[in-house]
Design goal:
The protein is mostly beta strands. It has two helices and 42 strands. Helix content is 3%, strand content 47%. β19 and β20 form a beta hairpin. The protein is globular, with a radius of gyration of 23 Å.
Length: 515
């Protein structure tokens, strides 16, 4: 029988939450107070800056990266449903956002009826029930489980959840994205059945041979129950055995981090009421008598989705000061999508895109929500929405119009000319409007195109205006696999009867007319 324990909420609010004014304008729950380095490990739930489990963290000057097998980093694009580790200053300003997929590899044993599959030998389950936790977001051309085929290369984000039947962890997916190629397989978890003579161990039923693997950090000693990430070439996987090329010993923090306060979100595993402990993302959480739990009367139990704030111990565990449990009625920040930015790809007052996310505003009275404002491209809005299963379109529950802040992120489409790779600049000429000089930086991400391939390309630049230039955060081409790709009205690609209108028509038919 599943055990439950209830920790009651005190009159105080979450100890580590403040209100802040973000890059996208407006107030929202923000990162922890203080001035020392801190870490947020959780799910991307919106953009305005970046929202991590409902907490807004300013990322305008942060690098957004993915870690390669050898520890080097490459710039990447943030998407809803990804799991990230955000290093910030304790005041809500991030220095680095690390995208951290749970498993990368080929899909096998795809079962559309059971909503399960295996990836690189690891069990993955799909969630289409909002009451059970965050819905699985589909990317890279997928729309639902029906699109996934055996042999597809996929990147999966989510929470490792212990399955007592199989005595191993499975990944409850928050995002599954099809990819065209991968540099290495990636699997993570707790070591079991370590054999130092054969130099093998097990990760959730996958036997990993590490004799020829490069170990990070150098000189680390492996042990059962240690959290690791194993990488290997696709050719290194044979059945349920992987020959690893690289092996990383994981901690909640980066190796050089000095963070003493952390926020972590995910599904609860190995809940133990007698010891008041559980795991989130493989990290041990200890609950004390002073721990605040919200909402009042909420249960912390296996499979519940929670956001934990607390202090990090020398062993990497967290002593919780506050725990927020995701409400099944989707009223809490953990169940909402928050978007702050300018409207793009406008079709009508019910169908548009904000910060790369298609928004269905059919339940909103625009005249009441934004009195005196006509919704259109480049109007700055704040949207609160809920996820919907098997579509990238979110359903707006509230909308307001705001004065544009200085550093609002906006997308501009046009043709590249005057490319200067040394200065990292080019001129972007749209079909309508004036040409703009674009500046890219070391933190700019490129999707579907490289900086060397930009000349004469039709691109979309998402960035902010500074010093008369558009400082690029993302430069992409049509078909790059971003979540709003099919809903974009790019000049030079789409006409008045464009693919975005076709996609909205298909969405309306699938959801029953106005919805």
């Amino acid at each position: 029988m599943k055990q439950h324990v209830f920790w009651k909420t005190s009159a105080s609010t979450l100890l580590l939450a403040l209100l802040m004014q973000g890059c996208g304008g407006g107030s929202s729950t923000s990162a922890s107070a203080g001035s020392s380095p801190q870490l947020a490990n959780g799910l991307v739930t919106g953009f305005g800056s970046v929202m991590v489990d409902g907490v807004e963290i300013e990322d305008v000057n942060a690098s957004v990266v993915t870690e390669n097998a050898d520890g080097s980093l490459r710039n990447s694009v943030l998407q809803i449903g990804q799991r990230v580790r955000v290093n910030h200053d304790g005041k809500g300003s991030a220095s680095k956002v690390l995208i951290d997929a749970a498993v990368i590899g080929d899909a096998r044993n795809v079962d559309a009826a059971k909503l399960t599959l295996t990836v690189a030998g690891q069990g993955v389950s799909i969630n289409t029930d909002a009451a059970a936790g965050p819905l699985t977001v589909w990317g890279g051309g997928y729309s639902s489980m029906a699109n996934v085929s055996d042999g597809d290369l996929v990147e999966v984000h989510g929470s490792p959840v212990y399955d007592s039947v199989t005595s191993s962890y499975k990944v409850v997916a928050t995002r599954v994205q099809k990819v065209t190629a991968i540099a290495n397989l990636k699997v993570g978890g707790k070591i079991s059945k370590l054999n130092t003579t054969a130099q093998t161990f097990s990760l959730n039923g996958l036997t990993v041979a590490y004799a020829t693997a490069t170990l990070r950090p150098n000189g680390a000693t492996l042990a059962d129950d240690m959290q690791v990430t194993a990488y290997g070439p696709t050719s290194g996987l044979a059945g349920t055995a992987l020959t690893a090329s690289h092996l990383k010993v994981n901690r909640l923090q980066d190796g050089a981090a000095t963070d003493t306060v952390a926020q972590i979100g995910g599904q609860v595993s190995l809940f133990n009421s007698s010891t008041s402990t559980f795991e989130v993302q493989g990290v041990k959480v200890t609950v004390g008598s002073a721990t605040t739990v919200t909402p009042t009367g909420a249960a912390v139990a296996d499979n519940a989705y929670v956001k934990v704030s607390g202090t990090v111990g020398s062993d990497g565990s967290i002593s919780a000061t506050s725990i927020q449990v995701r409400a099944q009625n989707t009223d809490s920040d953990l169940a909402k999508v928050k978007l702050i930015g300018v409207i793009s790809d406008f079709v009508d007052a019910t169908s548009f895109v904000v910060r790369g996310i298609p928004v269905d505003a059919s339940g909103i009275n625009a005249a009441t929500a934004c009195p005196g404002v006509t919704l259109a491209d480049n109007v700055t809005v704040q949207v609160t929405a809920t996820q919907q299963a098997n579509t990238p379109v979110v359903l707006a529950t509230s909308l307001s119009c705001k004065a544009p802040p200085t550093a609002v992120i906006r997308p501009i489409d046009g043709v590249v000319s005057n490319l200067d790779s040394s200065a990292k600049t080019f001129v972007l000429t749209p079909n309508r409007g004036s040409a703009t000089t674009v500046q890219w930086t070391d933190t700019t991400s490129f999707a579907g195109v490289t900086s060397a391939e930009l000349a004469s390309k039709q691109v979309r630049v998402s960035g902010y205006l500074e010093g008369g230039k558009l400082v690029a955060r993302v430069v992409s081409v049509a078909g790059a696999g971003l979540d709003d790709d099919r809903f974009q009205r790019r000049a030079g690609r789409d006409t008045a009867a464009d693919t975005s209108a076709t996609e909205w028509d298909a969405y309306r038919r699938a959801t029953g007319g106005n919805r």
